[in-house]
């Protein structure tokens, strides 16, 4: 996603993003660790401890809003600190020109490695090439960069969309009227839209009666206001069966509008999830009943692991696909609230991913503790 202060029009002017990296080498979730590219990289933990201690890592983000972004950054910091490094976050406040400048600043300040969170190829490609020329490794999350040498992480966006849309269709009995909340101009959104189009072709009796979406500084609040207007346009029970929201900030806003309007017959299906969203899904009075997501902390942790592999000289894949899980209210306990840290007790596959770990990384963690 994981994961926006300008309008769809602005993103169109900046340039739409391509949906995925064709022809790239891909490592699926749960794949084995890459082989070392040379004898030094294969030397093991003691050498890594000496050469990789105290690394300065830059995290250049497009925008930090919501608890998903906060937990993603927590994962980045946690894993880096476990490896004896330190993270500096450059928040670009959804200004792509500022993001480009932040990337240049990270290069000029001679950070040892750079992590990128979202952004466009148009804004970032020149800076990324400059970083690589200066031997600064780069690992990106949902940035659609197709620069040789950069490893790109993505969440399995089409699968997340398929999981939530299939559940929507099942719950609706294969027919009904739905609202889609989605925004163009972001790589994960474009991939999720591919699944949505396939869903429309498959379920002809499920009709889209409204579609909207804008990424702003107050996405959830703005979505709530837009959803309130749609509810007034379709005031009768049965006018709207469900809402499909392609981002957790969208789902939050729509859920609040529906709940406040007392339209409890409308169900919300979302994508992405953090502690705040999990609380809404557990609330029996909330219309948000299910979401598909990757643990945002895991995204940050895995991204750092691949960056350190690059720092170590290992060969890394061009694309790493993270495996999402489907979380429904039915799978959660009804007698107590749980956090994302506890979710693995109830939802198989959530959190604690070992993806990107190598034996020498674990040894480096142990050395950093001492």
- Kindly give the count of domains: 2
Largest sheet: 7 strands, parallel
Shape: globular
Unreliably modeled segments: 1-25, 28-46
What is the tally of beta strands? Answer: 13
- Strand arrangement, largest sheet? 1-12-6-5-4-2-3
Mean model confidence by pLDDT = 88
The CATH superfamily of the largest domain bears the name: Response regulator
The CATH architecture of the largest domain would be 3-Layer(aba) Sandwich
- CATH C-level label of the largest domain: Alpha Beta
Subcellular location: Cell envelope
Keywords: Signal
Protein name: Sugar ABC transporter substrate-binding protein
Family: Belongs to the bacterial solute-binding protein 2 family.
Describe how the helices and strands are arranged.
Layout: H1 8-14, E1 26-27, H2 45-52, E2 56-61, H3 66-82, E3 86-91, H4 96-108, E4 113-117, H5 121-133, E5 138-141, E6 151-154, H6 157-171, E7 176-181, H7 187-202, E8 206-212, H8 219-233, E9 242-245, H9 248-261, E10 267-271, H10 275-282, E11 288-293, H11 296-312, E12 319-321, E13 325-328, H12 359-369
Helix pairs in contact: 2-12, 3-11, 4-5, 6-7, 8-9
